[in-house]
Amino acid sequence: MKKRTIKRPPANADLASWSPWRTVVGFGVVSLAADMVYEGARSVTGPLLASLGASAVLVGLISGAGEAMALLLRLVSGSWADRSGRYWTFTFAGYALTAICVPALAITPFVAGAGLALACVLILGERVGKAIRSPAKTALLAHAAAAIGLGRGFGVHGALDQVGAVAGPLLVAAVAAAAGSIWPAMAVLVVPGAVALLVLARIRRSMGDPVESRDDTRSTEATTAPDHRRSRLWRLHGQLPRVFWLFAGASAATTAGLVTFAVISYHLTQDHVVPLAAVPLIYAAAMGAEALAALGSGWLFDRTKGRVLLGLPLLVAAVPVLAFATSPMIAIAGVVLWGAAGGVLDSTVKALVADLVPAARRATAYGVFAAVQGAAAIAGGVMAGALYERSLSILIAAVAASQVVALVLLIATLHRHRGAARTQSPA
To answer: What contacts 109, CB < 8 A, 6 or more positions away?
Structure first.
């Protein structure tokens, strides 16, 4: 069978290759700039649609449909990227959609009756871009980060990503306040969008095509089901190792137990724990904690061979105990802890995925993993909202129970992973 091997820039190329650290930081800058674009837009999606005549129902429908598309389409885009080997094509296409769709929202107030429909299409288009690029980009990042430590690489990337998530809404707020209108803020976002594409192009020229062989069978656990017994979905997702599914289950339990900030902020305001004006500041503090946790847990991941993740269920279980307190200081500490847990979930867990799955199937794995986490987040959000209304004690107990399940699955994952690594290591 024909094999695809790693391609590198020619030795006489005018452009020197970037070091692994520089490449990882480059990907982080791309994510920072892109986050400024789409997080900036998402911070005012509701007011923007309302200004164009949208009802609350339509706003909810578009935002919900967008998030569903951003998650579910990754199941297809990840597998497609692995089967075609066109990781850069998917990455560029996804970022280009974001860089085009968000600034184009600036023209929606000037196209008369078509403005609302156009805005809906552009918002959904940006979410499609996120779904297209995420698995392929993460696979490329894992390839670059392997040389410096997957934990550290994903940690640095996650921290830079969070900087963009904070800077984007702040930029939009400042421009909208100065202009007295939302559309100039959307127009300004063309700048970070262009920066993201330019830096990505520079990384592409330096990195080349790190495409692994289709025959790469390195796996922590072999799967050899006969072709005639595979379902269509099984074939599509390339027989991902069983240990990956075990870890996906652990991550789902952890994600479901991490109470959403929407429920926490509801408690903070409805129970008069803090003034309404303080909520955005508390959220910003949580985002800072998320960035620091991504860096710290990433560094520890490499030193502990993934065992740092065993502390994640404990963090998640502690969040509702603190965040739903009536004391402002304790509640704020709970929100900061919530941000730290989110930092580990959004970055360091991806390092273990890269360790569990053969390189040629990483995009597929990241697509599936994102969909599993997304479904768990939705289920967890519904559970938290319902139980908060019923009984805070029951909510805390339910979160604790989910984290016991997560911890057991994590222990089993790491045990299998270490066993497979010992088996595959040379005598």
So the answer is: 51, 52, 115, 181, 183
